[in-house]
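User: Hello! I'm new to structural biology and keep hearing that structure can be predicted from sequence alone. Could you demonstrate with GTP-binding protein? Please show me the input and the output so I can see what each looks like.

Assistant: Of course. The first part below is the input, the amino acid sequence of GTP-binding protein. The second part is the output, the predicted structure written as tokens.
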Amino acid sequence: MTSEQPVPVPITLVSGPLGAGKTTLVNRLLADPGDRRIAVVVNDMGEINVDAELLADQSEEGIVDLSNGCICCRLQDDLVTEITRLAEVREFDYLVVEASGISEPIPIARTLTVGTDEASLPERFTLDTTVSVVDAYGFWKAFDPEESLPDAAPDPERPLTEVLVDQIEFCDVLLLNKCDMVHDDELDAVEGAIRELQPRATVHRTTYSDVDPTAVLETGRFDFEAAQRRQGWKETLAGTENESPGHDSHGHDHGDGRSAADAHGVESLVYRSEDPFHPVRFDAWLDDWDGDVVRAKGFVWVASRPDTVLGVSQAGPTVQAGPIGEWGEDDPATRFVVIGRSLDGVTAQLDDCLVRDGDSVPSADADPFPREANQSP
Ligand SMILES: Nc1nc2c(ncn2[C@@H]2O[C@H](COP(=O)(O)OP(=O)(O)OP(=O)(O)O)[C@@H](O)[C@H]2O)c(=O)[nH]1
């Protein structure tokens, strides 16, 4: 008698820089899964996983939220543990893993194929496709168009450039997203540069990550052997093997034991307040992003809308803010994650936006919200 082997559950790993459109893609996959039952692991480096909350509306039970660290380094074991646990409590036949924007994809792919020192994924999982979502509009902010690629040296002033290069180089499918924000001739230039870095991947030009699910699910394109040959992959392996016994690491570091965030000079803060913002002052602050804020997102309480949750999302030069629901039984409270460099002044700036005694507050009809994507060069 032959016992039937269970069909391995394929995994799609979604990487890409902060705010490129990864969650937008995952939401699309959840909304249009075909006959698949999709589960999702979503990783955010902030203490609050806003992405998980935004996804939760669509498919609460199959979402696993890994926050406050990144799954390429500190949370590697947690990634394995959570996927294993998810498989025990829920039936699904496809797994999508959304990495945080500063995660390097190679160590995650390694975890998803060979596991960590501490744990390995059950054999019933197989890494099927690695996808990178790249922001076409923000691309030249990381690369100097005057430099020839791929020899352009990483610019120390742009610490995420190296991660972006990894994300571009290490993928089977690349979504060149936010095409609505870039002229066609510029898109050709961006795609040309990407091709220099990544000749192998299939590139799709997308707006709001709108791609046929079959382009990113069950492509069977992840090639373990090819991935192993890659320099970055080897470095990751070597880093693990050279660790001394008892070294308290998760198998990967960023060259000197620092976390991904430290290595790239990125920090995150969570701004919380149980007092509302003055809508006009907060709106003015949104107009005046400090260049060092790479990404900000969260749930905001403005005094002009006592019952309304204002969703705010900034990625590079794009800022969106509008009602996304009601506070309901929850006490209104702002929870706002800011990611960037030199964030020392941000908390004080946001404190300045809170309503003060004697302020006159406009009604919801007269406040600046919703504000649609606001782009400034
Ligand atoms: N104009 C425009 N905006 C987009 C597009 N795709 C996504 N966005 C917006 O960009 C912002 C960031 O999108 P997300 O999908 O949250 O990006 P992300 O990569 O998951 O972000 P992180 O998890 O912070 O790294 C949101 O406000 C999206 O609505 C696009 O093609 N065009």
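User: So the tokens describe the shape?

Assistant: Right, they're a compact way of writing down the 3D structure. Reading them back into a model, for example: The chain has two domains: 9-262, 267-372.
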